[in-house]
Structures are given as structure tokens and as C-alpha cells.
Amino acid sequence: MRRRLPDVTVYDLRLASPLALFFAAFFAAPLAALLGLSLKGPDGTLGLAQYAAFLGDPFSLGVLGATLWLGLKVTLVCLILGYPLALVATRAGGRVRGLVILAVLTPLLTSVVIRTFAWIVILGRQGVVNGALASLGVSGPPLRLLYAEGGLVAALAQVQMPLMVLPLMTALARIDPSLWDASEALGAGRWRTFRRVTLPLSLPGLIAGSVLTFAAAISGFITQSLIGGGQMLFMPGYIYQQAIALQNWPFAAAMSVIFLVAVLAVIVAFNALGRLARGYAQT
Amino acid sequence: MILDRRRLLTTALSLGAMELFPGLSLAQARPLVFATFTGSWEEAHKAVLVPAFRKETGNAPIVLDPMLSVDQIAKVSAARANPPIDVMLHDPGPALTAQAQDLVEPYPVERSASFKDLIPDAQEATGPAAFFQVVGLTYNPDTVRTKPTSWADLWRPEYKGRVGITNMNSTLGTGFMVEIAKMHGGSEANIDPAFKAMEALKPNLSAVAANPGALATLFQQGQVDISPGNFNAIQILKAKGVPVEFVAPKEGAIAFKTAIQIVRNSPNRDLAFKLIEAAISEPVQTRLMQAPYLIVPTNAKVTMSGEIAQVLARDTDDLRRKFVFQDWKAINAQRAAWMERFNREIKL
After folding, report:
1. What's the ipTM?
2. CB neighbours (10 Å) of residue B15?
3. From A126, which residue of chain B is nearest by alpha-carbon distance?
4. Partner B contacted by A54 (CB < 8 A)
5. What's the mean pLDDT in A252-276?
6. Of A44, A230, B72, B122, which residue is 20 to 30 A from A129 by alpha carbon distance?
7. Is B54 exposed, middle or buried (0-12, 13-18, 19+ CB in 10 A)?
8. DSSP state of B36
């Protein structure tokens, strides 16, 4: 009888065990500790008191809602500005493509703190935007851009843009260009080709990009506190305040768990929306 | 030596572990870790306090680890048995918190040479006040023509949209609110009048900064022209050429004692004591008072001179007369509730 050759498509599970151990020690265990801490009530008893305190408080729910809403707005801006960019970069030839990739990647190599400070310079009362408006002869008091939500969305969108464009470019590059030719040869216009061919086929990249941008925007503590200021409260700053300034660790832990669940819910919704859209596109 | 695969792997793993957990190999004798504040404080301590400590101890190893008070407390209370810090630096609020959470060793007053030289307000048995921080009004002299004289000037209509404050997370923000409450009939126990006054201040507010550092940046950007501000923070901006001035309001500048404390269970208790002795000694405080550091001394033997004598106080008596000290025990009792209230009420 012939000796059976080892199956090269299956790897020993033990190969994954170092990573599994690493995740268990540095991801699962702290998360479990966080969950345990969040169950500690103000009087030391175990229970859901911290969760009740957060979920029963309209102000706290408002902060959670504002944070998720901020993430959605930033994701939308990134999508509207990033998709055409990714499309141009993929369909254009060598040099333009290289330039776009360079333009997208360069900000990634700069620290978020520095990019955020640049936005302070741009948005300030005597900043680039207000300066340009004044020199154009637009009268009136300077626009309030810094410490306002519009400025925050713009800054976050710029800071997180690469996270949207790169997955989109990967997805778009995987589309066989002859599909576009075929679509046009069969009489579909550009818009129809985009709607029926390009968009559905790029959905995996679009969803990956949206999830990354959303997650990064809602947790962007530095940009939120420097551009948003102390009067606009979002979940990361709120959790920091409770945990560090007020030393209220159980409440901060409960807030973190609620935040985590809310974010997971939004991400699940993104994915469901993607599936739905794909189904629609194929009919 | 033959490098086989197994030996290579062992070496790589142990090197990796040492990199990940540097404490493993240094468990017996780690250097003294002093958690100072960031920015000008770190610079001043590196330039003046650390050399004095080295001279006193024959070059004992010391590490500066700059971070905020609240972060120091979080780190130490997360590892009480084996704290990563030996000496903490605290504003009055966090100092009391650290004490209440039993994170602090009592200061060995009877062994101290300089403790009795400190002015009475600085003689704290849990950790002497090694420095004062002073909060007054800061303004841009290019845009604010008449020099402000009172906290009440922030409410003047000509500063519409030009005023900056910080929220109550910081000592600066909380101390300012308490002072405003006092001006309107409140106290450390009754902050209501300050919140009422904040309602009236809203049209003037341009920014509620997340922390005093961010507030200082706003002067640089021309976003604000007048704000409550820290004397030392303004000196850095001035040195950079930013048009900004400090003035002590006629109600009195607020003084915060900056306590320096030995962490409970510190393995370097003796070195920690020596560092604090150096910090409260006359020569170190005299040097720290001069430019460019301009840190207000707590040792009564130090003769006030230079910018500090001109702008703040000529001597210790003058200092005690002009400075307002707040009751942080009363403030701490309600501070959490005030911060929550500030979150809710101060929206622009």
C-alpha cells in the first residue's frame, strides 16, 4: 500500500496556538476583567447598577448617540470624497495612480497629534480659512470653525481618510477591467455600469473601509478633544473623565462595555446593509 | 558554540521577554521614579532638582516620568503592592485623593532639615508642598487694550466671543469656578452662583478647552484673548514670543499647593525622602524661582526676586496676604458632582 502524503492544505492547529495564547492573555482576559469590574455597584455589591445608571440617564445616552452620529457623518464624508479618488486612482495609469497612493499614504506616516494641530491652524479664528474669507472681502465676524462640530467632522475625515481609500482601492483593483468594456459594449451607460457592475463588486472594500473609518472616528480621542474642545463630550472623553479624573472605574468599565456593544451593533448593521445591497444589485 | 534551532529560539524568546517585561531583570534595584508634570515642570526638574539630588546621593539612579496627577493615582492604585512610581507630584485635589486612597507614606518630618522652613501653609505631614502654582488672568496685550484687574472683567461685553476657560477636570478649571462662586456669595461648599454666572458668560465664551495646555495653545492661534491662566504656563508662551501677559486680579490670585509625596510600598523610600528634601531646600527653590523657570517658592528662607517679586509677591508675608488658598477638602467632597454638572450645563 502506498504511504499517504500529508495534506498540504491543512495546517496543524498548534501553529496558531502562540497567537491564540497572546490573544487570550492580552485581549480576552482584560476584557473579562473589564466586564467583571463593570458589575461592581457603587456600594460594592455585584449587579447591573452601573449599567442602569448609564442607560437610565438621558444625558449619557445623548453622549453615546452623539458619538455614533459623529462616526456616521465622518464615514459619509470619507465615502463621498474617498470613493471617486479610489476610482480615479485604480482606473488611471501608472503615474497618476502612484501619485494618489503617495498622497493617501503620506498622512498615515505623520502622527495624528501633528495632523490635528495642523487643523487647529487651519480652522482657528485667524486661521487659513478665516484668513482667506477676509482677504476675499467677505465681511462679518470670523467663522466659528474650531471647537465646533463641522470643523471636527472635517478634521476627523481628513485624519481617517486613508482607512477608507486603501480598502476601496484594493477592492476596485480586483475588478477585471474587461467587465467595464463588456458592460459598455452591451449598451449600458457609464452611470449604469457604475451602479450595476462597479459598486456591487467594490462592496467588500466599501464595507471594510466604512467599518475602519467609523471605528477610528468614534474613538479618535486626541482629535475629538483638541478640535472639539471641552464643551463637546464624546464617549472616549467621557470614559476618560470617569476613569481617570473621577476614579470611578466601575462606571467607566460599564460605559466601555456599552460603547463596545453599540459599536459592534453598528458594524453588524453595516455588514447587513452590504448584504442587502448586494442582493439588490444582483437582481 | 553551535547555534542550533532550539538554542536560537530560546535566546530569541528570552530576549523578547526581557524587552516586553523590563521589570523582570531589574526587580531588585530599580531607579527612583519621580512622576513630575509635563512641560515646563519636567524641564525645570531635570535642570535643577535632579542634579541637586544626584549631588546629595552620590549619583543615585533616578528617572523622571512626566504625567498628570490623575494618571499617577490611576497607575499607583492599579499596582498598590508594587507601585511603578516612588515620588508623586500633586495639585491639592489629587493630593487629598491619593491620601484618602491610602497611597501615600507619611513624610518623616522629624528627620527633615528643611520642613520647618516652609511657610505654614506648605507644611503638610503627608507630603510637603514643594511649589506653588498661581492662577490669575492671562490676556493678549495686543487686543486687550485696558489691562484687566478683576475676574469680573471676563464678563465685559467688549470680550464677546473672546474668552477661554477650561472644564472642571483640571485644577485650574475647578479653582476658577470656586473663585467665581465666592465672588457671587457662594463658597467651596456652594458652587451654584458660579454656574449661574457661567450662564451669563456664555456669549463671551469662545472656547472651553479640554485642559490648561490646550487653553494655552488657543492664545497662540488667536482663538481667545483673555482667560484664567496659570502663571508658569504663560511664561513658556511669552518666551516663545506669543503676545500674552499675566495679571493677578484684585480679588487675589489663586494659589495651589503642589504637594510632593512618597508612594506607599515604594522600594526606594530613602531615596524618595532625599529627593523631596532637595526639592524643599533653600538653594533648589532659589534657583527654580529664577528665569526661565519662575516657580513660586514655598521655603520661607528664599528671598523673592526677579519677575516673581515684581508680578506676584515681594516676600512670604506679601504672598500670604495676596494669594487666595482654597479649601480643597470641601471641594473634593463635591468635585465629581460638579464635573458632571459642568458636562451637562456648559454647552456652547
Report:
1. 0.79
2. 10
3. B222
4. no
5. 91
6. A230
7. middle
8. -
- pLDDT, position B27: 47
Which chain A residues touch B207 with a CB distance below 8 Å?
146-147, 229-231
At A159-193, the pLDDT tens digits run 899 999 999 999 998 888 888 888 888 888 888 88
Q: How far is A152 from chain B (nearest CA, A)?
A: 14
Find the mean pLDDT for residues A104-113. Answer: 85
Specify the pTM: 0.84
Q: Is A27 exposed, middle or buried (0-12, 13-18, 19+ CB in 10 A)?
A: exposed
What three-state secondary structure class fits B325? strand
The 3-state secondary structure of chain A reads CCCCCCCCCCCCHHHHHHHHHHHHHHHHHHHHHHHHHHCECCCCCECCHHHHHHHCCHHHHHHHHHHHHHHHHHHHHHHHHHHHHHHHHHHCCHHHHHHHHHHHHHHHCCCHHHHHHHHHHHHCCCCHHHHHHHHCCCCCCCCCCCCCHHHHHHHHHHHHHHHHHHHHHHHHHCCCHHHHHHHHHCCCCHHHHHHHHHHHHHHHHHHHHHHHHHHHHHCCHHHHHHHHCCCCCCHHHHHHHHHHHCCCHHHHHHHHHHHHHHHHHHHHHHHHHHHHHHHHHHC
Confidence band (pLDDT; 50, 70, 90) for B26? very low
B288 membership: H or E segment, kind and range:
helix B282-289
Q: Is the minimum CB–CB distance between A126 and chain B shorter than 8 Å?
A: yes
How far apart are alpha carbons B295 and B307 in whole angstroms? Answer: 10
Given a contact cutoff of 8 angstroms between Cβ atoms, the answer to whether B208 and B346 are in contact is: yes
The distance of A148 to chain B (nearest Cα, Å) reads: 9
Q: Which of A111-125, A267-281, B108-122 has the highest mean pLDDT?
A: B108-122
* The pLDDT of residue A283: 45
Q: How many CA atoms lie within 13 A of B339 on its CB side?
A: 27
The answer, yes or no, to whether the previous bond of B51 is cis (omega within 30 of 0) is: no
Inter-chain residue contact A245 with B339, CB threshold 8 Å? yes
Contact A125 B223 (CB under 8 A): yes
